[in-house]
Write a structure and sequence with these properties.
Layout lengths: L1 H14 L11 H33 L2 H8 L1 H26 L12 E8 L2 E7 L5 E5 L1 E5 L4 E7 L4 E4 L7 E3 L5 E5 L5 E7 L11 E7 L1 H12 L8 H12 L29 E2 L4 E2 L2 H14 L14 H13 L1
Parallel strand pairs: 1-5, 4-10
Antiparallel strand pairs: 1-2, 2-3, 5-8, 6-7, 6-9, 9-10, 11-12
Helix pairs in contact: 2-3, 2-4, 6-8, 7-8
Bound molecules: copper (II) ion.
């Protein structure tokens, strides 16, 4: 019973549209889904033909068996057919997906994504120069082409948002590119698709597609520095944040915290999840990540701050929320 329940659960998870190649939400993903269905259909037809031939060759009438035993049948069915079918499938696949890597200049939005062990550094180059830093969540405007520049800071990672496009590897020392377009507003989950050590399985992210004007407002808000706290707890949190050394690894723009080892936390409170998709961005989960990061996401590069357990961690979280 348990194995069956497990299989049913896996199959049902595959049907959820949050992260599925079978629920394409943009032209690039649609091409890939189309190709998969065509290959699946062709493979089904070929399997049926093979099954019929095997049936004829083993228990069929004598005449059919004699014909199938000729060497010309072997050359046609075993050599010519596969060459033609596989050649055609390859040519069609290359033609169909030719636009995935194309990044010809137009009004495309540029976003830079860097794979880090085990999270995603995001930068939005601004028209006036400079970048807006974020992490683990990519917001894109609906319907506009988005050119993603993919890099790695350490080992090979692979960038994959099944609803929007195929996988593209992030290779140390190289820059790879990918173009996506979302034609539906929504949240699409992505995942590192190349084993990169440690908590690779907890290296996810989300792509949030917004109406273009909402995207512009959001980006403008992200470009702002951290706000000063608005409550006594927030002020205490800011003080603890700076005193505990969080700023050695994290930036809170506009403050003395300018670390770049971990995610930029300036607008953390605007994000949906923390720890690269591991926990919700709720106050309780934030406290948990700060004080007990090695249980929340075993092996990740943030040291646990058990000393802050209780009021101090809650005050930091209040600060992070008020700073947005
Ligand atoms: Cu990985």
């Amino acid at each position: 019973m348990t194995p069956i329940a497990g299989i049913v659960a896996i199959v049902l998870c595959g049907c959820r549209e949050l992260q599925s190649v079978l629920a394409p939400q943009g032209p690039q993903a649609r091409q890939i889904a189309e190709l998969s269905w065509i290959l699946f259909g062709a493979a089904a037809v070929i399997l049926l033909l093979v099954a019929i031939l095997v049936f004829l060759a083993t228990v069929g009438p004598d005449a059919a068996r004699v014909r199938l035993a000729r060497s010309s049948s072997v050359v046609v069915c075993g050599l010519a057919m596969p060459l033609v079918v596989l050649g055609a499938a390859l040519a069609y696949g290359l033609w169909l997906t030719r636009s995935v890597a194309s990044t010809s200049g137009d009004d495309a939005v540029r976003i830079e994504v860097t794979g880090e062990q085990w999270w995603w550094r995001i930068a939005y180059p601004m028209p006036g120069g400079g970048d807006v830093a974020s992490a683990n969540e990519i917001r894109i405007p609906l319907g506009r082409p988005v050119d993603l520049t993919l890099r790695s800071a350490d080992v090979i990672h692979s960038f994959w948002v099944p609803n929007l496009a195929g996988k593209v590897d992030m290779i140390p020392g190289r820059t790879t590119r990918m173009r996506v377009v979302a034609d539906r507003v929504g949240v699409f989950r992505g995942q590192c698709a190349e084993f990169c050590g440690g908590p690779h399985g907890l290296m996810a992210f989300e792509v949030v597609a917004l109406p273009p004007d909402e995207f512009d407002d959001w980006l403008l808000a992200q470009a702002a520095d951290a706000r000063e706290p608005s409550s006594p707890a927030g002020w205490r949190g800011k003080h603890v944040f700076l005193a505990a050394g969080c700023g050695g690894c994290h930036a809170m723009r506009g403050t003395a915290a300018v670390g770049a080892i971990g995610p930029d936390l300036t607008h953390l409170a605007s994000r949906r999840r923390i720890g690269a998709g591991t926990l919700a961005a709720s106050p309780a989960d934030l406290v948990r990540f700060i004080t007990d990061s090695q249980h929340a996401k075993p092996g990740n590069r943030m040291p646990p701050f058990q000393v802050l357990e209780g009021d101090a961690a809650r005050a930091i979280v209040t600060y992070l929320i008020e700073a947005h």
